[in-house]
From TrEMBL:
The keyword Signal applies. The gene is lamp1b. It is found in: Cell membrane; Cytolytic granule membrane; Late endosome membrane; Lysosome membrane. Disulfide bonds join C69-C107, C174-C211. Residues 54-200 form the Lysosome-associated membrane glycoprotein 2-like luminal domain. The chain crosses the membrane at residues 218-241. GO terms for cellular component: late endosome membrane; lysosomal membrane; plasma membrane. One of its GO terms (biological process) is establishment of protein localization to organelle. InterPro entries: Lamp2-like_luminal (IPR048528), Lamp2-like_TM (IPR048524), LAMP_CS (IPR018134), Lysosome-assoc_membr_glycop (IPR002000). Residues 36-60 are annotated as: Disordered. This is Lysosome-associated membrane glycoprotein 1. It is a single-pass type I membrane protein. It comes from Clupea harengus (Atlantic herring). Residues 1-29 form the signal peptide. Residues 36-50 have a biased composition (Low complexity).
Length: 253
């Protein structure tokens, strides 16, 4: 007459862990999406209405023979502070609309330029390639805008930037929202970005190098996975030890 009560804890324990894992994962991913979805609110100088995430556009610069030499795919949001016609300092978030954006650019051996033009907005990206180290980066951003509510046309630029660093022949990718500060009055928020300013072959992006923000994002599932495997091990060990104890108990009786 061997009592089988001891066998119970394992299936129950595993069911518990699976349910726990499912809910834990669900709540973690919910939390992650919830935190990224909340638009950052700002107090100064006037809280702008959020236009929502910008649509993603495709912008390819081609060289003389029609093959792409610079490729970019991204959603763009301008964060601009300016003096309005009624003499107030306002901060505005403005999305670029891909279907209303014209683009142009140029490609040279160690510089590449992308110019985006929407109605009353021009945005210029300049990339530099270091031919020795075979690394490129976004070195300059320039905005000129003459929006109806501006007291005077705005121009903001910075040619000492070091963003979107990648390797020749590869693309730079950042799925997460990224903020590229240009100056006191202008920063650019990028969404779902992939660019390759040099070494594009056959109109295709090269292998992607992901930004740190994306890598951090991938850490969460890894940590959860590791923690859960640890938990499973502990429960399994507890079960095995428990079973050994109970066997020993029967032998002494
Ligand atoms: C197009 O021109 C570039 C240089 O401007 C050259 O490297 C490339 O091989 C040319 N591609 C074709 C298909 O002719
Ligand atoms: C816009 O820029 C201001 C500072 O210039 C900053 O406080 C605010 O958080 C930015 N907003 C977004 C949505 O990037
Ligand atoms: C930012 O804009 C203000 C006016 O709104 C101007 O006085 C200031 O010089 C600008 N700063 C930069 C760095 O352009
Ligand atoms: C651009 O796309 C938006 C929505 O994606 C649409 O509402 C708008 O009419 C389009 N504009 C043009 C000029 O095609
Ligand atoms: C290019 O990279 C090399 C090696 O990293 C560095 O020594 C050199 O100063 C860089 N050149 C420029 C123009 O930045
Ligand atoms: C944008 O660039 C075009 C072509 O260079 C120019 O005609 C236009 O005035 C510019 N718009 C703004 C707002 O600077
Ligand atoms: C740019 O190139 C990509 C990949 O070849 C293509 O999917 C996209 O339609 C192109 N966009 C434009 C505007 O030509």
């Amino acid at each position: 007459m061997i009592p089988h009560i001891r066998k119970q804890p394992l299936p129950v324990g595993i069911t518990f862990i699976v349910v726990l894992a499912a809910t834990l994962h669900q709540s973690l991913t919910d939390e992650a999406t919830a935190t990224t979805a909340i638009p950052p609110t700002s107090a100064a100088p006037a809280t702008p209405a959020s236009p929502g995430n910008p649509e993603r556009g495709n912008y390819n610069v081609t060289n003389g023979n029609g093959t792409a030499c610079l490729m970019a795919r991204m959603g763009l949001q301008l964060n601009v502070t300016f003096l309005s016609t009624d003499k107030k300092t306002v901060q505005e978030l403005v999305n670029l609309h891909p279907n209303q954006t014209k683009f142009a650019g140029s490609c040279d051996a160690d510089t590449a330029t992308l110019i985006l033009m929407e109605d009353k907005t021009n945005l210029t990206f300049s990339f530099l390639l270091n031919t020795t180290s075979k690394k490129y980066h976004l070195s300059s951003l320039a905005l000129s805008a003459s929006w109806p509510d501006m007291a005077a046309p705005l121009s903001a630029s910075n040619s000492g930037l070091d963003y979107l660093r990648g390797t020749l022949g590869r693309s730079y990718m950042c799925r997460e929202e990224q903020t590229l500060s240009v100056d006191q009055n202008f920063s650019l928020n990028t969404y779902q970005l992939q660019v390759q300013p040099f070494g594009v072959s056959s109109d295709q992006f090269g292998e992607a190098e992901e930004c740190e923000l994306d890598e951090d994002d991938m850490l969460i599932p890894i940590i959860v996975g590791a923690a859960l495997s640890g938990l499973v091990l502990i429960v399994l060990m507890a079960y095995l030890i428990g079973r050994k104890r109970s066997h020993a108990g029967y032998q002494t009786i």
